[in-house]
Amino acid sequence: MTILSLPAPLPNSQELSFHSSADICSAKHMTLGTRKKIWLFVAVTYLFQGVTYSEELRRMKRALDPEAFMSINELVTYKGYPSEEYEVVTEDGYIITINRIPYGTQNQGSPASRPAVFLQHGLLGDASNWVTNQPNNSLGFLLADAGFDVWMGNSRGNRWSRKHQKYSVDQDEFWAFSFDEMAKFDLPAAINFILEKTGQEKLYYIGYSQGTTIAFIAFSTMPELAQKIKLYFALAPVTAIKYAKSPATKLLYLPEKMLRGMLGNREFLPETECLTRIIAPVCSHRAFARLCRSVFFNLGGCNLKNIDVNRINVYIAQTSAGTSVQNIVHWSQEARSGKFQAYDWGSSKKNMEKYQQTTPPLYNIEEMTVPTAVWTGGQDQLADPKDAAILLSKIKKLIYHKKIPEWAHLDFIWGLDAPLHVYSEIIDLMQKYP
Questions:
Q1: In sequence order, what are the residues at sequence separation of 6 or more whose Cβ sits closer than 8 angstroms to the Cβ of residue 386?
Q2: Of the residues 64, 91, 111, 312, which has the fewest C-beta atoms closer than 10 A?
Q3: Which tens digits make up the pLDDT trace of 287-324?
Q4: How far is 310 from 64, CA to CA, in rounded Å?
């Protein structure tokens, strides 16, 4: 994968329209639904495009961070760490990418077997979430330096997992999945691949947000997979979202037909080069950094004092990695029902074909026997404390729980004090439970 080149200074705002047969923002490459899906901050920055793409932008004092345009491999090697990338085929034919940091910068020569740990991102994220901060503030790098063999997943449909043995991303069939399939197919495929590659019998699992959702499903419904997990670390866990207050969840309460009409049947918020080339320079500019920061981080609750403001353009450029509209519809069903259950296919007949019952089955977290440690945020508007309390009461083998009163949803992956409050504790627990 190559690094995207930085855009040249634009002489006037009219150059915002890209006139090229290869223009990735053209109708050829984007469905009607996709063209409607634009971040709130993108709309705001367009209002200021006359100012942004002018002499003011060309004279910006803040240099654009090259990491905004790097692949995951490049983000890792840029910090001096070894990087490997693998493609893994799931049972239902999806080809997902997983990234690996086999060792840290301080333990390259150690012959000791390094325990494997698998990190799984949240909704609209990817493996870059674990390595976008500096090495002393990114969980992926900290684990590697602590002597672990670090593996990072990419869910089907995100920008690094867009292949299938039979379907292309231009077919509706490719996008007919939600977090159900991620739990049933992606997670077992990745975990089994890692264990086979490393020769180990078990690994540690760290999930964030939707990465915890699929783990609760997989570990409670597949006992044979659960036996391969030493410890499960749940960061900002999300199952039912009955009490979520994030502005982003308002979309989920729209009727399903309306959602489908607005969003279509394929991708939701895919990462596109043209938007990245617009957003990253704008948000690195002093005049707009605060605006971008406020809009972006308000989606999961606001704790702006805990974010490295100098990396705001990196965070925004690397997000969103995309998912399927069906996945968003599934979360909409969760929001409206208040239940943690499988995807509702819309009719008793279709549900019967899928589940051998007329309604989607509930997921029983109580059936999960994996030792679990949980961290929650008191200001989290997605993994609301009330929802988290209900979840915690259902975890049989809860070995540790910590609530951080001032934390919001994104603090778990980008918070400046995350090593102090969470990451160091994860490493301590791993060493306590080898």
A1: 242, 243
A2: 111
A3: 666 666 666 666 666 677 898 878 877 887 777 788 99
A4: 10
Selecting among 324, 409, 411, 421, the annotated active-site residue is 409
Q: Which residues contact 425 (CB under 8 A, 6 or more apart)?
A: 373, 375, 400, 402
Ramachandran quadrant class, 161 (left: phi over 0; alpha: psi -120 to 50; beta: rest): beta
pTM above 0.85, yes or no: no
Catalytic hit among 380, 384, 387, 411:
380
Catalytic residue among 138, 178, 209, 246: 209
**pLDDT at residue 257 greater than cutoff 80:** yes
Q: For residue 275, what are its two tokens? A: 């938007």
- CA 168 to chain CA centroid, Å, is 22
Whole-number Å distance between alpha carbons of 93 and 167: 9
- 273-284 helix and 40-47 helix, angle to the nearest 10 degrees: 70
For residue 11, give the H/E element and its range.
none
| CA distances, 291 to each of 42, 76, 215, 283, 284 (Å) | 11, 29, 35, 8, 11
- Identity of the amino acid at 331: W
Hey, which bits of 106-214 come out as E strands? Answer: 116-120, 149-152, 163-164, 203-208
Per-residue model confidence (pLDDT) at position 296? 61
Torsion sign (Cα): 249, 254, 257, 263: negative
Q: Report the C-alpha dihedral over residues 173, 179, 181, 186, rounded to 10 degrees.
A: 110
Coil, strand or helix: which one is 205? strand
409 a catalytic residue: yes
Q: Annotated catalytic, 19? A: no
Helix 273-284 × helix 286-298 angle, to 10°: 120
The total of other beta-carbon atoms located within 10 Å of residue 288's CB is 23
